[in-house]
């Protein structure tokens, strides 16, 4: 695996690869890698000659500075895992390398309602920060395909929108959420859970699974209320539990029994904020 710390050198290298007709798959991450990240690496390897992973904890997407300070950094372990996964390139830039002119952005990305609902509502500025870093990364890497996890459902929608806004010819592949054996979605933030918190953490998956199994056409109020109570009784401080149209995340208060849906939740266990989502099958 080749490790690049400088954007200029990475760009020059990728340019040569492109001239040879090789396709690049890009997996952007914030490190503290786990099997979920590695599943994206494998997805990329299936369809591209070159797989590039970036590890960059982007300061501009943290609306809470404490969350940024406490975000786990495991660079040595990340390099080891990526080597073992036969990843071709790791891009490991500094903040100065990504934001040579400083972290304040002049650009406002027109994300529409995606910015005001769910994560957008509870993490003001978060998606602007995500777009800011992703525009820079995409302009350095110019990948053929971008690999994202369904775990961050709303982020996938935001990045689809970004790619339209900046008119970049990149395909987006959304990969399924990898889970621990008890259902907890794998996440770098799980490293911050202590033993009792880790035991409770599966509650977020269970609440979503409860919605998936019990949703019926008609009002969604009761089931959302029950799921919220389940989480609170489990020790979570709930930001939201919601049911949305899978297509565009528009919130659904009354379900027609046909429209494909996704249930989403975000909740704190003490200091650690977890998010998860499940697509609700509509075969009945
Ligand atoms: P992060 O390092 O949390 O920014 O995540 C980097 C990428 O990995 C994002 O596209 C995430 O959606 C994806 N990802 C995170 N957790 C998982 C998971 N459990 N399964 C699959 N993909 C994931």
Described by strand count, sense and barrel closure, the largest sheet is: 6 strands, parallel
Q: According to CATH, what is the class of the largest domain?
A: Alpha Beta
What is the topology, as strand order, of the major beta sheet?
1-4-3-2-5-6
Instruction: Give the count of structural domains.
Output: 2
Indicate the CATH topology of the largest domain. Rossmann fold
N/C terminus separation = 48 Å
Describe the protein's architecture and organization.
- The protein folds into 2 domains: 2-175, 3-Layer(aba) Sandwich (Rossmann fold), CATH 3.40.50.620; 188-277, Pantoate--beta-alanine Ligase, Chain: A,domain 2 (2-Layer Sandwich).
- Helix content is 39%, strand content 21%.
- It has 11 helices and 11 strands.
- It has helices at residues 7-19, 35-47, 65-70, 75-84, 95-98, 119-122, 126-141, 153-165, 195-201, 203-214, 221-233, and strands at 2-4, 24-29, 50-55, 89-91, 145-149, 171-175, 218-219, 237-245, 254-255, 261-269, 272-280.
- The chain is globular and about 55 Å long.
- The termini are far apart.
- The structure holds adenosine monophosphate.
- Adenosine monophosphate binds at residues 29-30, 36-37, 39-40, 148-149, 151-152, 175, 177-178, 185-188.
């Amino acid at each position: 695996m080749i490790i690049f710390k400088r954007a200029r050198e990475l760009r020059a290298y990728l340019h040569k690869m492109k001239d040879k007709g090789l396709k690049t798959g890009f997996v952007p991450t914030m490190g503290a890698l786990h099997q979920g990240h590695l599943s994206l690496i494998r997805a990329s390897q299936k369809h591209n000659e070159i797989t590039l992973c970036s590890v960059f904890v982007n300061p501009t997407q943290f609306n809470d500075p404490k969350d940024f300070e406490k975000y786990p950094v495991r660079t040595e372990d990340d390099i080891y895992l990526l080597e073992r996964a036969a990843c071709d390139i790791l891009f490991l830039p500094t903040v100065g390398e990504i934001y040579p002119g400083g972290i304040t952005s002049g650009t406002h990305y027109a994300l529409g309602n995606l910015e005001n609902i769910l994560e957008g509502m509870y993490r003001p500025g978060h998606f602007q920060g995500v777009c800011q870093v992703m525009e820079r990364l995409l302009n350095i890497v110019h990948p053929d395909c971008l690999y994202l996890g369904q775990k961050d459902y709303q982020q996938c929608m935001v990045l689809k929108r970004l790619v339209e806004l900046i008119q970049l010819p990149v395909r987006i592949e959304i990969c399924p959420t990898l889970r621990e054996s008890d259902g907890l979605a794998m996440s770098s933030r799980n490293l911050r859970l202590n033993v009792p918190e880790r035991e409770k953490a599966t509650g977020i998956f269970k609440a979503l699974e409860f919605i998936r199994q019990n949703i019926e056409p008609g009002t969604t109020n009761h089931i959302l209320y029950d799921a919220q109570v389940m989480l609170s009784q489990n020790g979570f401080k709930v930001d939201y539990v919601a049911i949305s149209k899978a297509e565009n995340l528009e919130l659904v208060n009354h379900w027609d029994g046909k429209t494909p849906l996704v249930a989403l939740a975000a909740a704190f266990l003490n200091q650690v904020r977890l998010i998860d989502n499940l697509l609700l099958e509509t075969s009945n």
